[in-house]
Structure formats: C-alpha cells, structure tokens
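Figure 2 data, in text form.
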Amino acid sequence: MRMKTRTIAPILAAFLAASALAAAETPVLKIDAAKPGPPVGLRYGLMTEEINFSYDGGLYGELIRNRAFKEDAKDPVHWSLVQEGGAAASISLDPAQPFNSAIATSLKLTIAEAAGKQRAGIANEGFWGIPVRPATRYRASFYAKAGPDFKGPITLQLVSDDGATVHATARIPALTSDWKKYQVVLTTTAKSTPSARNRLVLSAASKGTVWFSMISLFPPTFNNRPNGNRQDIMRLLAGFKPAFLRFPGGNYLEGNTIETRFDWKKTIGDIAQRPGHMNDAWRYWSSDGMGLLEFLLWCEDLHMQPVLGVYAGYSLRQQRIKPGADLVPYVTDALDEIEYVTGGPNTVWGARRAKDGHAAPFPLEYVEIGNEDQFDREPGSYEGRFGQFFDAIRAKYPQLKIISSTRATGRTPDVLDEHYYRRSEDEMASHSHDYDARPRTGPKVFVGEWATRVGAPTPNMSAALGDSAWMTNMERNSDLVIMSAYAPLFVNVNPGGMQWPTDLIGYDALTSYGSPAFYAQLMFNNYRGDVVLPVTAQGIPTRTWQPPAPGRRGGQPDAPAVAPPPPPPPQEVPTVFWSATRDTKTGTVFLKIVNRAAAPQPVTVEFSGLASVDPKGQAVTLSAASPTDTNSIAEPTKIVPVTTSIDGLGASFTRTFPPYSLTVLQIKAR
C-alpha cells in the first residue's frame, strides 16, 4: 500500500525529532543475562593470496628475487653484473644450458679478466633490499656448473649497497662441470647495523664461464623451518590467534587464465623442481616457494585449521571448463589435492605428502569450491560446475563441509562465502545490522573477504571503527556467521609493492607492523565469551551520511547521453555499536562498545538476570586522537590496545568511552 504524501511529513518530522532527542540523551544498553542467546560459533581466521607481494617479498622467507631467472624471458631482472678492480665480465640468460625441465634456463657468467684483487660476479638486490641484522645466520644455496676454463673459487658475501661494509663472507673452493648444489652459512658480524640496504654477491677472481640457477638465501625462519616464513610477521599473526587459514585464496586461485591458475601439483616437492608461474591476476611472478605443503605447515605452526580452496574450472578472463567430461580432470585434481592433505601413507597422494616430509595427515573440515564465481558471466556455469565438484567431494569425503563461492540452487552447500568491501567507515557501519534479520533456514555464512577500505597501504583508525561496527554485527549473529576473514591480509609498503589498498599488515624488507584494523580484529577474537547475550538499545546517537551516487548508465561510445540517476537520500547512521557475550564457565561478560564520534560518549549499561556484578574489572581500549591516525613502519605501535583496571561497575552503571575508540569491558559476574 502506498502512503499519501500528507501522511509521510508528520511521521518523518516525528522521527527526526525523536532522533534529535535521542542524540542528546545518554544511550542505554539493557543486557538480559537470564536469557542468553545462541552459542558464539564465529571463528576469526586469515584469508591469504599472492597479492601485494604477500609471499615472495613478504611472509615467505626467501630473500632472493628472481632466484630461478624466470621472471623475464630476456633479462636477468633484479640481478646486476659485478666488476671490481679492473675485472671484465658479462652476464646473460642461457636457455642452451637449462637447469632442469622445470627451469629451462640458467644465468651465464663469462669472466674475461679477473685475478688477485680483480673481482667479477653477480649481485641480487632482493625484494627492495636484503635485510641484515647483527650476529645472524643466513642459509645460502645455489646450483652451478663450470666451464673447463674456470678454476674457482666462488665467494659469497652480504654487502651493503654502497660496498663499504661486508657483513658476512663464505667460500666454495671449487665447482664441477655438472650441475651441483652448494650450501654455505653466512653469519653477520656483531657490529652489523640492522639495515635493508644490502645485496648478495657471488664473485670469483679467475677467468672462465660459470652457469648458475636457483640461488637462495634464507634468514632464520619461524620454528626454524627450511623454506619457512619470516619470524616477525608470524609472531604478529600468532598474537591474533587465528582459527583457520583460507588458501590459496582469491584471484590467485583462479588466475586470469586456466594456464595461470594455482596448479597445486606444480607447487610441491623440491623447490628446485618447481617451475613457478606468472601471477597474472596481480601482475608479478610467483616462485611457488609457498606451495601447498607450505600453506599446511603455516597452519600447523599457528594451530590453525586449513580451509582449502580448490580450482573450480573458471578463470577471470571468462575462461571456463564445461561441466561434464571436460571438467572431470579438474574434479579429479581437487580430489587428489584433498587426498594430499588428508590421506594416509597407503594412499597415492598421502604417500607423496609423506615423501615431501610430512608423514601425518593434516586435519581438514572445510573445502571451498572456486572463488567469487558470481563474476562468471555464463548463465548456469557455476551451477553445473559446483554440482559436479559437490557430488564428487561429498561421495568420497562425506565428512567434509562444502563452501560455495556464490549462491547455487542445484545443491545446498553447508556454507556460503560472502564478500564485502565498503569504501568508507559510514558505509560499513550502515550495513552493520544486515545479519540481524537474515533467515536462519539456509546455509551458514563465511564472510570470507571483507574490509573498510580507508587508508593506504594499511587501514587508519576510521577503517578500524567501520570494521569494528561490522564485527559487532557478526558477533551478535554468530549462530549464522560462523567464519570471518579480513582481506587482503598483507602488503609490502615499498613503492610498487601494493596492488590493492587497504591491507591488514604492512612490512618492508626489515620490519613489519599491524594496522589499527588488525588490533581491532585481535580484540574481537581474543576477548569474547561462548554465548551471545541479548541487548536492547535505547537512545543511540546517529550522524548523517550521504551514500555514494550510483554510476552512470549507458556506456556505449555512440549511445545517447543518459542522465545520471538522482543521488540517494542521506541516511542516519549510528555512531555507537555494541555486542555482548558471556563465558559460561567463568561468568565473565565481554561488552564491546564502538564509539565512532569525535566526542567522548557516555553509555549506561543495565544488567538483568545476574546475582551480582564485581565493581572492579578491566577495559581494553583501542583509540586515536583522529580518525586518520594510523600505524606505519615509522610508528608501528602508535595505535595499539591498552588494558586498564576499572571500577564502578555494577548491575547498572554509566561509563564514558573515548572518541574514536573500540573498548572491551571485562565484567566479572555471577
């Protein structure tokens, strides 16, 4: 029924008057502990893909860029020729001397003049530099073979970019005429100053020809794993206590083309046998040093559950495999992948995993079929592809829960993956009650990618506040929303390192930091109970937000001009958000309050259904002087959670929350 115009005006006036009155009052949150809601089923985890140099040049410990000389077919990019003391030499890629079938080229060093203090060789610049720390052991390795005119030795050095400081030196006495692996340890001096302005140099003081391949340099890694991960970034993640890792994730799984998808069978085994591939979705080379087993070991190191994404026959440039016979090899590939993860040593791929160094199967509960298949423009394509994968996985692995990457009606997935990227704090906050009225009759929800996109390269406090408002929505509805993962997770902050803002954790070659949004995630994950408490809110203040106008219609160059649609009307968006949970074992109530306003905000809290409330408790607060404040390489801990003891709590109390803040009150109750 349409309301008459004269009826709307008084209703709108009354609404605005009530809103103005509410804004002037102290908000009241009534929490009924006698009628707890659903269990807190929500788990916070990580979504990862090779974007923003997340692996190569990021989490993955390898310090040499273009270690297999495959990033460019013509030039040995990121390598340079060394000629010192009057030495003369040249370098070139040499496909006539392939290293192996996976790496069908090598780097040829031809030394025409070198003796005594004359030195010729090659140097690698790393990923925006090679980090050096004092008294640190670096594991270096390379494959090489020598021509009959070369007598050696080969010297390896970690040297400052200006050549003034040699941090570490090691020597290989001689080379053979066949490909052979050589390994040394480079130990920096106690006087070495922490710096990323360094390079690795391999040189000789004798004439002749040498071919190189797979030159590698690793710093100490987390849990001392060979081919492992950076310690500093892993420690940040460990503090977050993620429940799962969704991998290999996103566009990197699909590739722009079928050929450049994440082909997992090419990412296992000896790194010297991995061909690598062009990560064309994000326009740079992937060494595939971070392969399927490395993802699983990452899960093991941080006690995370793997959430495996399998390629589902669709790539971003609208390349797809038809359901039916054409899709069978890809379905089989996914079944093999699951067997590699979970199979015993008596299975083909379980035995291969054991051969690769991990005898025990990994736990696996969730498998996601594809990624963002709503972008497939072929009608019915995902329905057919999803159904074929679903049936095969369900038949062989009935215990697994299956996630769909978009809605599918032919089969009912256990979980639906939903992605949300909002371009402002207010936009994210305007959606922060979306799940309150969602029917509970369909599949559970995995918010597999989401972010408030404010700030670059990492989110500022405004983004953290939008994220926090959204997380209250997920926490209140954690009977429906069972998993959450912010994206993207990582960004290399050096010029050229970022393809997508805004990103949770930033780093350069030497150091790393968590953004304000990272610490908001940490607070939501680490401070919560096991049941949701119902909250009735009164007098919540709002502010006016102008939603962005829809884009123009038309689009064809010769099409007649079409007037843009009128902008949507302004909206009133709350500045205060909340959620409450309780630990049923200890009785502790965790009350989260988000204050997005520029002024301190008093809030009255009224409990019912509790025998007593301890007047003393704790407050964990993340706050900033300005919404544009942020963390960075220069100020990595400018905005971090602060824990304080508080008193004055009770069955009814009023507390004032700082401007631009997220606060978790820990309230002991019986």
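Caption note: Residues 1-23, 552-559 have pLDDT under 50 and may be disordered.
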